Amino acid sequence: MNEIWSNVILTFVQMGTERDNSICFSFGVIADIQYADVEDGYNFMKTRKRYYRNSITLLSEAVEEWNKDCMPPSFILQLGDIIDGLNAQHKASKKALKNVMQEFKKSKADIHHIWGNHEFYNFSRHCLMSSALNSQHLGNSMTPASSNRVNSNVGEDKQETFYCYDFCPFPSFRFVVIDCYDLSTLGREDCSKKYQESLKIIRKINKNEDLNNPEGLGAAKQRFVQFNGGLSQDQLEWLDEVLSYSDENQEKVIVVGHIPVHPCAADTICLVWNFDDVLAVLYSHKCVVSFMAGHDHDGGYFQDERGIHHITFEGVIETPPTSHAFGTVFVYKDKMILKGNGRVPHRVMPYPECDNQ
User: Fold this and answer.
1) Buried residues in 16-48 as b, exposed as e (16+ CB within 10 A)
2) Each residue of 25-59: pLDDT tens digit?
3) How far apart are CA 289 and CA 307, in angstroms?
4) Which of 34, 90, 329, 334 could form a disulfide with 317 if both were Cys (CB 3.0 to 4.6 A apart)?
5) Looking only at Cα atoms, what is the longest distance across the chain?
6) Among 70, 245, 281, 83, which residue's Cα sits nearest to residue 172?
């Protein structure tokens, strides 16, 4: 995006923030912090530098910016991979998480946490459910699907549960947090049904000894690696029910997960295993306006044929100390405007039904 267009967007946001009552609310977004108190390193392919120790500094600066904004965000979306898996190797997972959470505690806004693969490198699913990274208590849904899920959890096998909830921060707007590692070999006990099901799914396609290795899979199937995951049929049905409620109540919905679900919004190695099933659910409803994710540190964007804005946020972990990687989304009745910082670009995103107005 050229400098002139960037200035136009920033001016528009500033005008709206200060004088335009059509802004409904705003929220902050940050992805893939992956903090670890270790020296800088590189990604798996040795092609991108990772700034492990400095990532917490960039988080601190993002929180500071959000707090002093003339229109502070109503909440923050932390899109997963809050600390790096290296912490587990150094037996520093709890300490690293404590350090990062201390920075988030400085925020004036609530933090909604999404779980990524690095959460499961550091903690079991059982541990995460009872940790500060479980933000389900911030869900304020009155949808029948969410009420039924709360009631069914009483007798549910803890090994098979999934982490999801929805909340309504403003009338006619709903956010749905999904669990992209519901089907995964990460974080679950070997004896669990979902672990065994997930192992079969990945081994059927990926014949490599190292299941994180995509070698020989080809672009169409390279997502079948261990650092990705999928949604179970139970979760897909839950998502469908929540979206049906939003259709009936004429709400606009933003779905949020760690892993992207559209091949044009990220590298094809960074996709939900059964992304086509997820898209089928999204496409069966008129309420969905956006899907937000992290995971692919390069970021990405695509508006699909249904008008849904797929936004993949750039990762903090691969952001140099001289830059940033976070954004603030200003929500209007007819569009969203992303005010990016550093590697995160600015975007104007009209809702599907408003494109031609």
Assistant:
1) bbeeeeebbebbbbbbbbbbbbbeeeeeeeeee
2) 999 999 999 999 999 999 877 889 999 999 999 99
3) 7
4) 34
5) 59
6) 245
